[in-house]
Structures are given as C-alpha cells and as structure tokens.
Amino acid sequence: MKPARIPLTATAPGHWREMPWGEYYREALEAQLKPWMAKLYGFHLLKIGNLSAEINTEACAISHQVNVSLGGEPMQVKADPLHLPFAEKSVDACLLAHTLAWSEDPHRLLREADRVLIDDGWLIMTGFNPLSFVGLRKLVPVMRRRMPYNSRMFRMARQLDWLALLNFEVLHQGRIQVLPWSRQGGTLLSTHLPALGCLQVIVARKRTVPLTLNPMRQSKAKTRLRQAVGATRQYRKP
Known about the structure:
The protein has seven helices and seven strands, in the order αβαβββαβααβαβα. The chain has a single domain (16-209), classed as Rossmann fold (3-Layer(aba) Sandwich), CATH 3.40.50. Helix 2 (50-53) links the parallel strand 1 and strand 2. By secondary structure, the chain is an alpha/beta fold. It has a seven-stranded mixed sheet with strand order 3-2-1-4-5-7-6, with helices on both faces.
C-alpha cells in the first residue's frame, strides 16, 4: 500500500474554475450534499480548504461558518489545515471538499478534524475516484502535471478504513458521475454504474463509544459478585 504521507509536489487550486470542468464538479457536489446540509445542526461549521469555501452551504442550519485555508479567497481564518487553531471539541461540523486530494498528510488532516469536532460531530469528505475516467487519465504521464490529475485520488475503501480507526460512523457513501458535455451530469451512469463515478462523497459522524461491542468486556460486566466471607443474612422479627 502506498504511504499516505508524501512530500507536497502539487499546489491545490484556489478555485474550482481553475481546473477543467471544475464548476461542473462543484455544482454536482452541491446537489449531492444539499439534503445532508439540511440535517446539520449546531453552532460552528468549518470549511477547510479553498474548494470547501466555495461550496454553497446555505441549506445548512449552522449560521456561523468559517473558511480556513493558508491563502486565497474567500478566507476568514488563515491557518494550516494540519494545525487548526481551534480548541478540542469546539466545532459541530467539518467540510473537506477535495481537501485530502492535495494534502501532504491526509492522516494528520483527519486527526485534526477529529480533534476539533464535538462528540457526534459531522464530517463530510469529497474527492476524486481513482477507478473512474478521471482516475484513468492519471496513468498518462503527460496528464499527471495538470489539474485535477495532479491530485491524490484515494479509494473509497481506504478512506473508510481511516474513518473506522478514528471511530467515525459512516452514514452515507456514494459516487456520482459528471459529464463535461452535460451540465446536468451523468445521471444514467451514476444510477447504473456508480462504481465509475468520478466524484466520491462520504458523510460520517464522530462517535464516542465503540461501534461494536467487545464480547470479553460484555462478559466481564455481567460477572456476578461472589458472596462475602463471613456475611450472614439478617431476618426481621415478626
């Protein structure tokens, strides 16, 4: 398995429009995330990365939304996503729209999001599917230097393993297809061939208890107490 942490060789785009069909990708993600945005609640929403900042989250009930990045616009807090300047368990939701794709240390990024999220906080992640038509173009050496093919594309199963280690419960995982010649997107392909969708979406929640019960601990919890030595029963006189 390839290491998740590598030296950063490509700069993340400051806007969706900087990559080919970037606006199509953004609109497709907004349509996919809109039902989930309506379910978010709390006080603070972190949109980490420039691409996350441009995602329309008006459907979200969280009024205080903060854009965090090292540069670009729109930006409200200038900070390294690998070192978020927020207290532990102070944020209700985090949006990572293609943030892992241009991160030198995805593990550290997820740990930082986990650190600042409150118990039962929401984590939304999007990225490119390496098994899609977009992912196949990375095999061409000339294309690897261009956006978005210079980004990192992680398999869905690998990302789910990372979230499981951090004790996140995945509520939704899906792939959607975007066709460059149709602004409506590849609805037919997304329905019948979801594995080939170029965009991946994961919605998860941070849990504070193990999602699966440990049978050893469960049996110990049910262990009966032995009778104390020398203890006698007391009877009341009628």
